[in-house]
Predict the 3D structure of the following.
Amino acid sequence: MSTLFVGACSGLPVCAAVHTYLFVDGLDLVARSDSRMIGLEPRRLLRPGGPLYPGDMPRTVEVAAGAGVGGLAVRVRLRGESVIWSGLMYPGLDDGVVGEVRFRLRQYLGEVERAYAAALE
């Protein structure tokens, strides 16, 4: 099972825009997928019942965007007590391609909720 950590940048003066960092097993998913992109705004991505909340029906969720490079999307679905992200294509620690990750539902939802609360501060 993988672990999710969600961070956020508050924008100026640190960065040009408020955005979300998505770390899967300690690796920055967005930067490793395409360094020209930045994660979407945390209040949009992490809100209760929002895009990253899993459901029984799989759905494609845009998690990052970049000027002139399109967006980065993951397919999110719930299977039992696991949240599955698929449709990924980024280099893992061993430089092999990561195509799918699975999270424990409790850890995943706890992290999304923690990060959303932090974004509201």
Summary: The first helix runs from residue 29 to 33. The helical segments are 29-33, 42-45, 105-120. The radius of gyration is 14 Å.
